[in-house]
Specification:
Radius of gyration: 42 Å
Structural class: alpha+beta
Distance between the termini: 72 Å
Shape: elongated
Number of strands: 11
Number of helices: 20
Number of domains: 4
Helix content: 40-55%
Strand content: 5-15%
Length: 523
């Protein structure tokens, strides 16, 4: 598109005058008004009459002024510069180079100001700030407000015009000093803005440090190693877990912790078994609120994550045959599960009957006992309810519902320790084969065949011990002595819950353990 100059009497265009630049009339209201007044074209009405009382304003947004109408040959955006507005027109064709010289001298005087005058201006600014802080804030907003950007240009333009007038007219020295002090105030305000930005950056750093010291989830964001150390799961698993569970949580404006921090606190409790008093001290929240948060998320995870522990994942024997590790397949080609029982220390109940039922002669302590099963890959696929430590392993298995045709098919192989004398039960109820190491009872020595079978069984059955160890090491709440309130709470008793508090804790820990890596790898 051909660009043409809009100045009256100028015939320059981009086709014939390629050495010139063409600048569009600014859209900024005050600067546009200055340009139009300098161009000084008459306003033409719709009927063709000329109205000299109105300022000409083009309707099109593509109206240009060529570079010949500027002193330096180009447009300058500095309000103090003569070329901030075009000034050379047919009625005034001589370039006003003296204006440029005056502008340069004014800039030079500003740049050569002594440090003494700058210090004096800072002292005056400090005194002014102490005497009238409201005025200085108004002055600051007046200088730096985005909406009054042109006012700033006008002030600078006025100071430059005064500096130019000094070349030809005598000026009061006090006025000149006040102009310089005002320029110094601009510098001081710029320094204060820079200091404010630096302080804000330091505040952000301190807030990040505070989040780390206050057990905040942001301290492990994006770092799998730190998140696994703090919660037992990686950061990616934590985010997916929270995204899934948050759909079932109603957000409350009165909550003292956001939902993500509540889940993070719950996993910290499971991972490190820290006391509720410690969380209350660090977070500055009452202990009762911390306890409510913990059990709220435990109830939700127990209900929503149970599907991670169920036999349906391995009910298809074709899948088991395809994924079973080769080392296991050579020894036990139809292996589907490895079973065992483990115990967790608890506080001694006050009731003597309950204490007798929970006392374990093997551990010599009051315990709860749980039956567990894992598949050949080490994933937990069955978990019974908790029993008192006095109950035998065989009794727990019989009452857990594990010996059922719903879980086993004829010919399935199950590995167990010597204490599980349930081979006849598995054969009669589900036609599965229970394989245990050989007994030495009533024998002086095992035969070579029995020794070899026992060795093969032990080499594979040891993986259930690794699963139990991994579960306890990953979630320390299972290693310490559980308080009675974590075994069976008054709320569960009053509501006649089918699952006790310790059942929920074990189920959640097992489900979270299944979200991690397997303990058995393909070679």
């Amino acid at each position: 598109m051909v660009k043409g100059c809009c100045v009256h009497g100028c015939t320059a265009n981009s086709m014939s005058n390629t050495d010139r630049n063409f600048y569009i009339i600014p859209k900024e209201a005050k600067r546009r008004d200055k340009w139009l007044r300098a161009i000084n074209r008459a306003h033409v009405n719709k009927d063709g009459s000329v109205d000299r009382n109105r300022l000409w304003s083009p309707n099109s947004g593509h109206v240009y002024v060529c570079s010949a109408h500027f002193v330096s040959g180009k447009k300058v955006n500095d309000p103090c510069h003569p070329d901030f507005v075009p000034s050379i027109f047919p009625q005034n064709e001589k370039p006003s180079s003296i204006k440029v010289d005056r502008y340069q001298r004014a800039i030079k005087r500003y740049n050569t100001e002594s440090e003494t005058q700058r210090t004096t201006a800072r002292k005056k600014l400090k005194l002014l700030d102490q005497q009238s802080p409201t005025n200085i804030m108004q002055f600051h907003s007046y200088v730096k407000s985005p909406d009054d950007h042109d006012s700033e240009h006008c002030d600078k333009d006025l100071s430059c015009n005064k500096a130019v007038q000094m070349e030809t007219h005598p000026v009061d020295p006090s006025l000149e000093e006040s102009d310089h002090e005002r320029e110094m105030l601009f510098d001081e305000i710029e320094n204060l803005i820079c200091e404010k930005n630096e302080v804000l950056e330091r505040v952000k750093i301190l807030e990040k440090l505070m989040s780390v010291s206050s057990l905040h989830s942001d301290s492990v964001e994006g770092n799998d190693e730190r998140c696994k150390m703090m919660t037992g799961i990686t950061w990616g698993v934590f985010i997916h877990l929270f995204t899934f569970l948050s759909t079932f949580i109603k957000s409350s404006s009165t909550s003292k912790l956001p939902p993500r921090e509540q889940l993070f606190l719950t996993l910290l409790k499971l991972r490190h078994n820290l006391t509720f008093e410690f969380f209350s001290h660090v977070k500055g929240i009452p202990k009762s609120t911390i306890v409510d948060y913990f059990w709220k998320w435990m109830d939700l995870m127990h209900y929503k994550l149970k599907f991670f522990i169920r036999w349906a994942h391995w009910a298809d024997r074709d899948i088991i045959n395809k994924t079973i590790p080769p080392v296991f397949k050579e020894k036990f080609p139809r292996l589907t599960s490895i079973i065992d029982c483990f115990e967790i220390f608890i506080e001694a109940p006050k009731n003597l009957l309950a204490r007798a039922q929970c006392y374990s002669s093997y551990k010599r302590h009051t315990t709860i006992k749980c039956f567990i099963s894992c598949n050949p890959h080490g994933a937990i696929n069955f978990l019974s309810k908790c029993w008192g430590g006095r109950a035998s392993d065989a009794e727990i298995v019989r009452n857990s519902g594990f010996i059922s045709s719903l879980y086993h098919l004829p010919g399935d192989q199950i590995l167990a320790d010597r204490g599980f004398t349930l081979a006849d039960d598995f054969a009669a109820l589900c036609s599965a084969e229970l394989i245990t190491p050989s007994f030495t009872r009533g024998k002086k020595q095992l035969s070579a065949r029995e020794v070899e079978i026992s060795r093969k069984v032990s080499s594979v059955r040891i993986h259930i011990e690794r699963v139990i160890g991994c579960l306890k090491n990953r979630f320390s709440i299972l290693k310490g002595t559980l308080p009675i309130r974590c075994v069976q709470s008054l709320k569960d008793e009053s509501m006649e819950e089918s699952f006790s508090s310790c059942d929920k804790i074990l189920t959640v820990c097992a489900a979270l353990s299944n979200m991690g890596q397997s303990i058995v790898f393909h070679q």
